[in-house]
């Protein structure tokens, strides 16, 4: 009945009201189109529903168009049945007296009620049939955590009573509604047959959740796929293929268990059907045109997927079990069941080429979800695959993680956003019905672990994993759904975990009853083989030969795995960048080219940035002032922060580099400084992106406001940057400290990605930072965290070679900068692309400096021949007489402008020099050494606006000591240690600022102190 309009009397009878309201049927009051209400009829014993249905019936007799067309059709058929073949003429007009001659009204009313009851019964199965489906292969748990059976589905007798039907009605024929396909080509069925077919569809090994979807077409599509009689039929060849895939899945795990019984491998035992399930989705998708599949999954079953889905060479997997294998041998610092893979091969079912990528990920199980989505989106973008018909993603989840980890929800909410959608993902939940040692009743509040998917109207197909054919059918439908509707779909494989959390774990400690049953459980391979042998699809000999064949393949690969020559990191890359690291077969030159550009290009970009490229486009008057201000800056050959960013992006677009900027409110900019998307003030949703109107053949620029998510969106952008090195991908936090909720992505993927998985990534994080009295939640981007995770050695005195800057960058795990000038921001963005390798770039961006009158740069600092300055030395009076300088203050970022202002007010320009560190990590040892040696008589001080236990001091101090060989101290100037990063009281902020500025310029402050 989903989507139908049910027109019933406004004073609905109790029976009809109870049936319809129980099944969420939209009911609207009905009134005759005649001039007055119809005559009263005697009420029936159930509350009057019969009499009111009779009113509708007689109104229909008067005028068939007075009721909805579905009732018109229904009454025509009901009247024919009630008349038992002696059909009465259908008058177009009937008087009150003519009603009294209709002797069959009670019979007709009962017939109407019975048909309505049967339709409600059908809807009950469609809505709640999954609650009584036989989903648990162990037969001891309820997949929905509740043994309650809905009263309208409990037993045949109770069921009939609920709908006011009798046992004698079981053999009566009923008209089937348009919202079911159980009849196939038949329009009527007996009630007994209706119930039988509904039971077979909704209450066996498949449980369907889809009736919450608010699209009639989609609901009808699912009903047709599952209700149509005979749809779940497989040919003998398909069954044999399924059996062979199960053999490979199970025997692979058995082989590992025999060879490495004491090794952790997080095997798939208990859900071996996942391998043929994945292969079915890939086969079906390939058949529909998919050429690239990107997978993400946790560690359970990963080795099996690598071997039997991605088809990684078995010897490459087996050699990872070598106890003498060192991380350096593979270039990887992670365990084998976290590694990724990229492989292009022929799909043997479709004979089409398909590329499969399994993305490496850590034990933060669901953290890989948005990464996969971002990589998929990028692959679709570069292929021009706007509808997702060539590239798709598959995500495998564990039940406990799927229900428990919030990034799942964040990722689902990206699924339909224009700049983030991947046009549908197939989700497979390996539902072990246990999380490590935690019972599902203690692990979630929702009935199913998959309930989070309901928020985006994704259908959920629960299936008993010990029924391989049911699994295959569900997976085939899931792949077809994704291709048809470009929406997410979830397959919930209800299974069990034969061993503990890992192979060394003892699950009987905590789940004794479950594991007693598991120990008695017949493996799915034996069950299915016995079934096929019994029906004559295969013989016992053929089955045993299939097992022997795969065992032989494993043994031969095991022998080859002893050869150390097979080890090579290329086998474990999930995102290879062919041609990037080499030019004409030779490694790229390790140099850092100048990042400046010609003044003509700067002027052209500036003119576009200060104009509206579209005719008749009405912008806000306040924005007109901003654009005029940009035009004035161009005339004066200067740029502020926003314009410098525009210049960097625009110049890269000219060079064919795709630029993508994503985050919360990045289109305008949190601080209303960017305005990369203009909005027509008179035409709703008419926008203009001037950056895409710079040159006719430029690369595309994507700027997109994200959902209010950091974890999910940063993961997405990381995956996007992973797909290609020839793109500048940036994520901006609304405030720098908001990266707190994305810390998992930063820790697990960004800072360690290269060390664990040899994965280069050039993602840029823009983190607004600065102490301005705005409170602890909007001040600090926590630079100390990034610096603590930097891998350069504070105690190692470096060798200053000619290419010291580039070699430092090549060896580091990421680059951390805090630019104090727009020009340096411009250069560091361009350097990010011009380097011959890729490293993550962390930029602490300003807030107040966005409009600071002194924070402007000249074109002279950006034109050809200029480049990024890791350190900006003092260039004033003090630099011209360095022997007279008594204090050399090192600093970074916004505090420089406070220091310059204070120095000027105290008239100490000759006595105090101020040097800025623009690149903090890797630490510019060479330039710091030069600056310190330039001022031999000066005290050295480090000044920061952050508290002493935060910010940069703990990072820079030991490095200063190393480069100065501990001959001179570096004194700290700044705020005292504190728990919170900043105060929210403006006066307290100014008092503490004045205090440390006084210390910075008190030339006797450090006399008599030792270090």
From TrEMBL:
Q: Low complexity compositional bias: what residue ranges?
A: 92-106
Which cofactor does the UniProt annotation name?
A: thiamine diphosphate; Mg(2+)
Where in or outside the cell it occurs: the entry states:
Mitochondrion matrix
Annotated Transketolase-like pyrimidine-binding domain ranges read: 639-852
| Pfam families recorded | 2-oxogl_dehyd_N, E1_dh, OxoGdeHyase_C, Transket_pyr
Q: Does the keyword Magnesium apply?
A: yes
If you read the UniProt record, what top EC class would you report for this enzyme, in one word?
Answer: oxidoreductase
Keyword set, alphabetical order: Calcium, Glycolysis, Magnesium, Metal-binding, Mitochondrion, Oxidoreductase, Thiamine pyrophosphate, Transit peptide
One Gene Ontology CC term in the entry:
oxoglutarate dehydrogenase complex
Keyword presence, Hydrolase: no
Q: List, alphabetically, the Gene3D superfamilies matched.
A: 3.40.50.12470, 3.40.50.970, Multifunctional 2-oxoglutarate metabolism enzyme, C-terminal domain, TPP helical domain
Its principal location? mitochondrion
Identify a single GO molecular function assigned to this protein: oxoglutarate dehydrogenase (succinyl-transferring) activity
Q: Where is this region: Disordered?
A: 81-106
Q: Which GO terms describe its biological process?
A: glycolytic process; tricarboxylic acid cycle
- What InterPro entries does the entry give? 2-oxogl_dehyd_N (IPR032106), 2oxoglutarate_DH_E1 (IPR011603), DH_E1 (IPR001017), KGD_C_sf (IPR042179), ODO-1/KGD_C (IPR031717), THDP-binding (IPR029061), Transketolase-like_Pyr-bd (IPR005475)
What's the Enzyme Commission number for this chain? Answer: 1.2.4.2
The Swiss-Prot or TrEMBL record describes its family as follows:
Belongs to the alpha-ketoglutarate dehydrogenase family.
Role according to the record:
2-oxoglutarate dehydrogenase (E1-like) component of the 2-oxoglutarate dehydrogenase multienzyme complex (OGDHC) which mediates the decarboxylation of alpha-ketoglutarate in the tricarboxylic acid cycle. The OGDHC complex catalyzes the overall conversion of 2-oxoglutarate to succinyl-CoA and CO(2) while reducing NAD(+) to NADH. The OGDHC complex is mainly active in the mitochondrion. Involved in the inhibition of cell proliferation and in apoptosis.
Q: What name has this protein been given in UniProt?
A: 2-oxoglutarate dehydrogenase-like, mitochondrial
Q: What organism does the UniProt record list as the source? A: Cebus imitator
